[in-house]
Each structure stands twice: as C-alpha cells, then as structure tokens.
Amino acid sequence: MSIHKDLVALAHETAEKLINKGDKVIDATVGNGYDTLFLAERVGNEGLVFGFDIQERAIRNTKIHLESAGMFDRVTLIHAGHETMLRHIPEIYREQIKSVFFNLGYLPGAVKSIITKPETTLLALDMAWRLISVEGFISIIYYPGHPGGEDEVAKINSWVYNNEIKYMHCELRGHSKTSPGIFIIGKSPLNNSTNLN
After folding, report:
1. 48: which strand partners?
2. Domain of residue 184, residue span
3. What is the reported pTM?
4. 132-142 and 75-79 as β-strands: parallel, antiparallel, unpaired?
5. Which residues, other chains included, contact 72 with Cβ-Cβ below 8 Å and sequence gap of 6+?
6. Residue 143 — pLDDT band, cuts 50, 70, 90?
7. What's the angle, vertex CA 52, arms to CA 48 and CA 54, rounded to 5?
8. Which of 23, 34, 105, 142 makes the best surface tag, with the fewest CB within 10 Å?
C-alpha cells in the first residue's frame, strides 16, 4: 500500500471512531469526491457535509460520485476556496462541526499548476479550528513533493505547534523529505493523543 493510501486510511479510521450519524462535517478540498462520499456515508441521512473546491471540475466529479451513490441530498457543494468557509457555513453550525478534512496539493488528473497555497490554507485552518466542536478534529494530508509544497508544509507545521493546539491525535510522515504526511488534531484527547502542552 502506498503512503498516500495509508494516510487516507488513517484519516478515515479516525473518522469512523469520531463521526456519528447526524453530524455536520466539512471536506475542505473535495478533489474527485472520494473523501466527500466517505463523509456522506458516515453522517447518514440526518447529517450534512459541506464540500469546498476552487475547481469546477472537482465539484462536477464529486457531484457525479455522490449522485451515483444516492447521497447527493446530504452534501452541499460549494465552488469556492476553503479560505471562504466562514462565509458559507450557516451560523447555526459554528462550533458544531465534527470534522474538517484537508487533502492538499493538486487535483489528481487535472492541471498540476493549480495547487493549494500556504496563505489560503492557513486561513482555512484558522476557520476550521473555530468551526469544530469540542469533540471535533481536523485531518490534514499534505504533500511537500510538488512545487510550493515544502513551503506549505513548513507553514502548516508552524501553525500546529505555535497556535496553542492542545491535542494531536497523530503526526505521521513518510521516510523521505518529499513524502506526504498527515496531522490529525483536535480539541479533546483520544486514547492515543499526544498532549502538546
């Protein structure tokens, strides 16, 4: 199994433990819709997924996946950057979001020059932290191997360690400097959490 698949599996495993039917969650980078579909399955008919992407192609691909699975009715797709989250999430759900998923980098199969950028990613992380509930968590899969990726990872690392993030459920990275990795952070401890204070 590739490191990317391992990281996605770890994010999904955490979600299976923490996300319940009826929860409200965010996919901050819908891409081709695989995480969005997974989250829609987790929250069930009573739940809601907000999905963001700046690329129309990503929104279109995700809609197709959701419609094929009969789950489009529990997802709100938003053709906008994840740094606009607070504008699009209804106030009633502030501090009620159970999870925010980030899968950074570029859209697989699309133009590789369209990538997530540190300045907008950090804004989105600030917003995600404000939106999640006390029991909520943020999953951040990152890729330092593409142009601009290493700078984005360095800034995310600083954000995690300098932003009074109290609990980290996981930090995992591949063996090389350019390997992808994941942060899973939350406001409450899990059995395998690391207390960063």
Report:
1. 24
2. 3-195
3. 0.89
4. unpaired
5. 63, 66
6. confident
7. 165
8. 34
Helix axes 34-43, 56-69, angle to 10 degrees: 40
pLDDT in tens, 87-127: 999 999 999 999 999 998 754 555 555 666 878 999 999 99
Q: How many domains does the chain have?
A: 1
Q: What is the dihedral sign for C-alpha 6, 99, 125, 51?
A: positive
Token duo for residue 101: 């998923």
Tell me the two tokens of residue 12.
């999904």
- pLDDT score recorded for residue 197: 36
Of the candidates 84, 76, 87, the one whose C-alpha atom is nearest the C-alpha of residue 36 is 76
Spatial separation of the C-alpha atoms in residues 103 and 35, rounded to whole Å = 9
Alpha-carbon distance of 56 to 186, in angstroms, equals 31
Q: Read out DSSP for the chain? A: --HHHHHHHHHHHHHHHH--TT-EEEES--TTSHHHHHHHHHHTTT-EEEEEES-HHHHHHHHHHHHHHT-GGGEEEEEB-GGGHHHHS-GGGTTTEEEEEEE-SB-TTS-TT-B--HHHHHHHHHHHHHHEEEEEEEEEEE-TTSTTHHHHHHHHHHHHHHTT--EEEEEEE-SSTT--EEEEEESS--TT-EE--
The CATH number of whichever domain residue 29 belongs to comes to 3.40.50.150
pLDDT given at position 191: 54
